[in-house]
Amino acid sequence: MKIQQLYTQCLAEATYYIVSGNEAAIIDPLRETEPYLKKLKEDKASLKYIFLTHFHADFVSGHVDLAKETGATIVYGPTAQADFNFYQGKDNEEFIIGDITLKLLHTPGHTLESSCFLLLDEEGKEYCLFSGDTIFIGDVGRPDLAVTSSISKEDLAAKLYTSLHTKITQLPDEIIVYPNHGKGSACGKNMSSETYDTLGNQKKVNYALDPSLSQDEFVQKVLEGLSTPPQYFPKNAMMNKQINKDVNEVITKGLSPLEADEVVYQVAKKGALILDVRSVDEYIEKHIPKSIFIGLQGAFAPWVGALIKDIDQPIILVAPKGKEKEAVTRLSRIGYDNVIGYVKEGALDWEEAGYATEEVPNVLASSEALKTAPFFLDVRRAGEYEDNHINESIHVPLSEIFEGVAELKKKQTYYVYCAGGYRSLIALSILKRLGFTSVINIQGGFAEIAKNNLPLKRCPKSCPQCECHKQ
């Protein structure tokens, strides 16, 4: 028996690849099929089942393409409905893969079809639980993503309580819990950076498994403090119920090199967006005017999904040489399938064709100019801002940048910062695209600011009425 956790840091997502004998199963695959086909070939195994723990909202799964290429059966839990052929498993139904067994446990709560898969080893012993978004390490799945006119988040939270206490906590303490997500995912609020743990330890440290909690107390705890789900979540959930474009066709189309004149035409006539995915330093040094920066080196896909509202937006990439395929693939994982190509030779080709480039005004945190700067723009999350920030800074979280610009003046000079310089550059690129004429990036972000002598204001979270919160 072989179990591999294939963890994708950008999405904080775990896919599981299981082999026993010459048969294999994959749980919650990402969109692209090539890596899985390669593993199957290396192991000389045939893919028997593709298990989905639920209809994912934070990425588009490749189950339909993978089933078409391998002949494997797609399996969902009870109540699932979709446009493609799949097998609807029953609660406690067992599936044989070589010498092992996967047992479906229907655990509604995160969504109605949510299911976990309990692996029984060659001796029939309960070995591990593939828990999907039902239970994470340190947390449980948020119950507000599958709300409909007939079921509320409170109803789903109550179902999750029942699932945890009648199914999950009854399992042996020594089994390993393999969740679908880890720290950084928006599918929970308190996830650990650890990607697996024993159930026994989770019973001790996971607040949601506290046996003293009543159902009402559990519902209250699980629902409190939930952030607004990213706007692309419902779109991805819908795509996972449909038959989508073949991922190989999406990637092939996106790998078309475009001359500068063609880029200008696509932007002017087709409404294409130029998305620069290079490094922070490369974008600062030289970029195409009105391009948006979201670099591959950060939380690329989630920020694209949060900030590019139209999932069908035509996109032209400016990518590091050799990283074009990676960029197109990572966009396809969240359903941004309309990449029409990339700028051939990037900003260099753009200049050689006679078009202007721009650089980002950038200052060090130690710069004397900052000591007299009138307006600072902090684009970090609310919790980061509350912990510590520059005195009198304006706070507009990056996730709310389009809504927050109404508070800002386009001709005013703003010094923009985040924690380390990645998010501030995204915000700055958006502001420039929206017509702001004087936005300056603080290099190194708040990490560097805190080392220098700028006036800072600490804001205890226990003091929500302080002046800091009233800004």
From TrEMBL:
InterPro entries the UniProt entry points to? Metallo-B-lactamas (IPR001279), Mito_Persulfide_Diox (IPR051682), POD-like_MBL-fold (IPR044528), Rhodanese-like_dom (IPR001763), Rhodanese-like_dom_sf (IPR036873), RibonucZ/Hydroxyglut_hydro (IPR036866)
Keyword annotations of the record: Metal-binding
Origin: domain of life: Bacteria
Signal peptide positions on this chain: none
SMART domains (alphabetical): Lactamase_B, RHOD
Q: Where are the transmembrane segments?
A: none
The residue ranges of the Rhodanese domain are: 268-359, 376-458
Pfam families associated with the record = Lactamase_B (PF00753), Rhodanese (PF00581)
Q: What is this protein called?
A: Rhodanese-like domain-containing protein
Q: Which organism is it from?
A: Pseudotenacibaculum haliotis
